[in-house]
Amino acid sequence: MRRATLAGAALLAGTVTGLATGPAQAQEYRYWSVWEGKGSSWTYATEGPGTLRPADGAVTGFRFTVGADSAAAGKPRTAPGFDAICRATPAKEGRKRIGVVVDFGTAADAPGGERPPASRTECAQVSEDASAGEALAAVARPLRYDASALLCAVAGYPKAGCAERVNGSKGAGSAASPAPGAAADGGDDGGPSTGLFGGIAVLVVLGAAAGWQLRRRRG
């Protein structure tokens, strides 16, 4: 009887703990992500297109994607090769050249009723202090921003909406677009969930009950 009690408590505790610590599905958004070319790979930009100021010879990427945070965001599918993008654009005094890669994403990521255009690469020749947004505007108009200066559309895609939630996503997680790392709906701040604390509490109670049963039978 004692062994059965202990085994049952351990089994129930393990089940509850496993359920409590299971990862929550984060809320996903459909949005334009911004990237910086680093050699032959891409790095998620820590600034928006309005404040990011690439140097002459840099490559900036824009990818329409669906994700919950920067780790899940789709990268541009074209390599950031400046020489390949800007070889036909000669250097000019007082101007800088920035390679621009625009990836409109996949059909699966497209809003309902829209089809993503083909990806494109352009060489933007802009003023020396120009931002990534100005370089993008030089080669992929029209652009659309919201009131918070969030990039909503490139070359008119998508036609409407801005960083919208993707239907079917559950839970509260990190929004990848307007404010990376911010809690969706002001709910989850990234700390341990109440479910986790509840699972630990149940584990403690079950352990105490098993110990009491053991002491009672010894007595």
From TrEMBL:
Lineage: superkingdom: Bacteria
Coiled-coil intervals, chain numbering: none
Record carries keyword Zinc-finger: no
Signal peptide (residue range): 1-26
Keyword set, alphabetical order: Membrane, Signal, Transmembrane, Transmembrane helix
Comp. bias intervals (Low complexity): 172-185
Region feature Disordered, mapped onto this chain: 168-190
The keyword Ribonucleoprotein belongs to this UniProt entry's keyword annotation: no
Cross-referenced NCBIfam families: GPS-CTERM (NF040681), SCO2322_fam (NF040672)
Protein name, UniProt field: Secreted protein
Organism: Streptomyces sioyaensis
